[in-house]
UniProtKB/TrEMBL annotation:
Name used for this protein in its record: Cell division protein ZapA
Signal sequence segment: none
Cellular localization per UniProt: Cytoplasm
tRNA-binding in keyword set: no
Record note on quaternary structure: Homodimer. Interacts with FtsZ.
Organism (species): Planococcus shenhongbingii
This protein's record includes keyword Plastid: no
Keyword vocabulary terms for this entry: Cell cycle, Cell division, Cytoplasm, Septation
Protein task: Activator of cell division through the inhibition of FtsZ GTPase activity, therefore promoting FtsZ assembly into bundles of protofilaments necessary for the formation of the division Z ring. It is recruited early at mid-cell but it is not essential for cell division.
GO terms (BP aspect): cell division
NCBIfam families the UniProt entry points to: PRK14126.1
Recorded superkingdom: Bacteria
Pfam family of the protein (one): ZapA
Length: 86
C-alpha cells in the first residue's frame, strides 16, 4: 500500500475550526486559512448585514477574482520576457 503523505491540520476561519487535509505543509495551510479569514473580515466590515453563507460566497468570488488577475499579470510578464529574449 502506498504511503500516506497527507498532512492534517486544524485551522480557524472566521471563528470556526476546520480540519484541513492536504499535501502542503501545515504552515502553508495555516497561511491559506489566515488569508481567507482576513478577506472574510474585510468583506464583513464593508457589509455587516451579510449572513455567513453569503459572506463565504463573496469571499470565494473575491479571492478567485484576485487569483485570475494575478494569473493574467504573470502571463503578461511572461509574454514581455519572451519578447525581450526573442
Amino acid at each position: 500500500m502506498a504511503e500516506d503523505h497527507r498532512i492534517r491540520t486544524s485551522v480557524k476561519i472566521y471563528g470556526y475550526t476546520y480540519k484541513l487535509v492536504g499535501t502542503e505543509t501545515s504552515a502553508h495551510m495555516q497561511l491559506v486559512a489566515s488569508m481567507v479569514d482576513e478577506k472574510m473580515r474585510e468583506i464583513h466590515a464593508m457589509n455587516p448585514s451579510l449572513d455567513s453563507s453569503k459572506l463565504a460566497v463573496l469571499t470565494a468570488v473575491n479571492m478567485v477574482h484576485d487569483n485570475l488577475k494575478l494569473k493574467e499579470h504573470v502571463e503578461q510578464l511572461e509574454n514581455e520576457l519572451r519578447k525581450l529574449k526573442g
